[in-house]
Design goal:
The chain is of the alpha/beta class. Helices cover 41% and strands 15% of the residues. α10 links the parallel β11 and β12. It comes from Algoriphagus machipongonensis.
Length: 379
């Protein structure tokens, strides 16, 4: 619980619910996902073997997420589930419910939510408080990067387990889906992500426009509401800028990744970022903001270059990248090697299952293994 639901794939947590849930079902686990009722017009009870419970919420800008998780937690605690798995550190305080009912619980706390510019003032203080409470109420804390594990130990004196976000190697996509924009192979730099301050699209755009590049900068992403920051960015007029908004067709999005000259990653406050993993999976040359999280994901420069949080630094890396075509090609050829074992969804699932089995106190019987053993006995 804590994501939008299944199979509603919109963001990182929803993708994790899908990838993890389907693999757990294949291993013999009964998986129940609490779906945000308002997002589903059709409400089947089972989808791909996953049980879906459609739970309502108090629909408001700040209350939807918390109320949905709270109602879901109450429902789960009065059921026969063995383990409750929650995502999002903002749900940390709700762990008191599972603690009260003595239900074993696990939470994936994601990144430094309290530092994100959108959570100023009370929002920032809430996320810090909620993250601290998560370490008190839940039986196991999961972080998706070594750096976040260090942060939770330093700030909250809390032990956590690192289980990275998963990814997959992607096949190259033909150039046809982007040809309608009159753009050719490697004729552009790419940004993919929400247009929010903590992704630093403004910094990248300003630095790019200050450079002498003749390529375009393609920006994929938006925000699902009226926002001054996003509106200001989209109002910038320059022939080199192309704002696409949301690209919902995964084939077209794959084409944008496949054919970019380099992918810009300005995300600042997260742990393991899905957009970065996708760029590695599509074999992109990557230019990333210099943060501990991005250093960890790119293995300290093995799979990309870094820029500082300065306009001139972005300008310089654009011009250096264009003058270093051989190095960019090297990054493209080796990018998929960056998806080491810890980012493999099958390996990620095995790690989560081990945590769940340990807390539950028993092992899950894999139906395929059971069938194999029965066949051997019969033989």
């Amino acid at each position: 619980m804590g994501a939008k639901g299944y199979p509603y794939v919109y963001g990182g947590y929803d993708t994790m619910v899908k990838e993890l849930g389907e693999r757990l079902v294949a291993k013999g686990v009964h998986v129940r996902v609490y779906n945000h009722k308002a997002l589903f017009k059709v409400k089947p009870r089972y989808v791909n073997g996953i049980e879906c419970i459609y739970m309502g919420a108090v629909e408001s800008k700040i209350g939807t997420q918390l109320s949905h998780t709270f109602f879901s937690m109450i429902h789960a605690c009065f059921s026969d589930v063995d383990i409750i798995f929650v995502v999002n550190s903002g749900n940390g305080p709700i762990g008191w419910v599972s603690r009260f009912f003595r239900k074993k619980s696990v939470i994936n706390v994601d990144g430094l939510e309290w530092l994100r510019p959108k959570w100023k003032g009370i929002g920032s203080r809430y996320f810090f408080w909620a993250s601290r409470l998560a370490t008190k109420y839940f039986d196991r804390i999961i972080n998706d990067s070594d750096e976040m594990q260090r942060v939770y130990k330093e700030l909250f004196n809390a032990e956590s387990q690192v289980i990275a976000y998963g990814a997959a190697v992607k096949e190259d996509v033909e150039v046809a889906p982007i040809a309608k924009w009159g753009i050719e192979h490697q004729d552009y730099f790419l940004i993919v992500g929400r247009l929010v301050p903590d992704n630093n699209a403004d910094l990248i755009i300003k630095g790019f426009l200050k450079s002498d590049s003749k390529k375009k900068l393609v920006i994929v992403g938006d925000v699902p509401f009226m926002d001054e920051y996003a509106t200001l960015l989209k109002s910038l007029e320059d022939d080199r800028l192309l704002f696409l908004g949301y690209v919902t067709d995964p084939h077209e999005l794959g084409a944008w990744y496949t054919h970019c000259y380099a992918y810009f990653h300005g995300h600042e406050y997260g742990g393991t970022n899905p957009a970065m993993l996708k760029a590695l999976g599509y074999g992109c040359a990557i230019l990333a903001l210099d943060t501990p999280f991005n250093q960890e994901m790119l293995q300290n420069g093995k799979h990309g270059w870094y820029f500082q949080k300065e306009v001139d630094s972005v300008k310089d890396i654009v011009e250096t990248a264009e003058a270093s075509s051989e190095r960019m090609e090297y990054f493209r050829k080796t990018a998929r090697e960056g998806l080491i074992q810890k980012y493999n969804w099958d390996y990620v699932t095995e790690q989560y299952l081990a945590v769940f089995e340990e807390l539950a106190g028993f092992k899950v019987i894999n139906p395929s293994e059971e069938k194999k053993n029965l066949t051997e006995v019969e033989s």
